[in-house]
Design brief:
The protein starts with a helix and ends with a strand. Helix content is 37%, strand content 48%. It has one domain: Nuclear Transport Factor 2, Chain: A (Roll). The radius of gyration is 18 Å and the shape is globular. It has a 6-stranded mixed sheet. With 145 residues, the chain is of the alpha+beta class. It is built from 3 helices and 6 strands; from the N terminus they run H-H-E-E-H-E-E-E-E. The relative contact order is 0.17.
Length: 145
């Protein structure tokens, strides 16, 4: 009886560790997208987003074409961005994951400093072993005074 209990406990611990490792992969995909955005690297973004990637940004619907135009507009400027992602919750069910996180960025465009903050959620799909963002919903938070 005692052996059975320890085997069951070991199985539960193994599943929790596997879930935690997979949750980390989900969070890494999100981080890599924002790192690519900071580098104005559309290819890096598309590596971790689905072909039908959708962003809901302050009441406006964006897709990869929208994001590409925004990146193109920043090229040729003096641009720097540092991201800070603070994950609140990451859940996985099969090949679908969703995450809730606080996103903040220190951005400098042509010498103008911007400190932006968002509360975001994302839905990711596992494609060919890689967690890819399908939907990202972004709510702008008030700037700290």
């Amino acid at each position: 009886m005692r052996k059975l209990f320890f085997c069951a406990l070991l199985l539960v611990v193994s599943l929790v560790k596997a879930q935690t490792a997979e949750q980390s992969k989900v969070n890494q995909s999100l981080t890599k997208v924002f790192d690519a955005l900071a580098a104005l690297d559309l290819k890096g973004i598309t590596d971790y987003t689905t072909k039908d990637f959708t962003v809901l940004e302050s009441g406006v619907v964006w897709n990869l074409d929208t994001l590409s135009r925004k990146i193109d507009n920043l090229k040729g400027t003096s641009y720097a961005r540092t991201n800070h992602l603070d994950f609140v919750k990451t859940e996985i069910q099969g090949n679908t994951a969703w995450a809730v996180y606080h996103n903040s960025a220190d951005i400098v465009i042509n010498g103008e400093e911007i400190h932006a903050r968002w509360l975001e959620s994302a839905v990711l799909i596992k494609e060919s072993g890689i967690w890819k963002i399908k939907l990202l919903h972004s709510t702008v938070l008030k700037r700290k005074q």
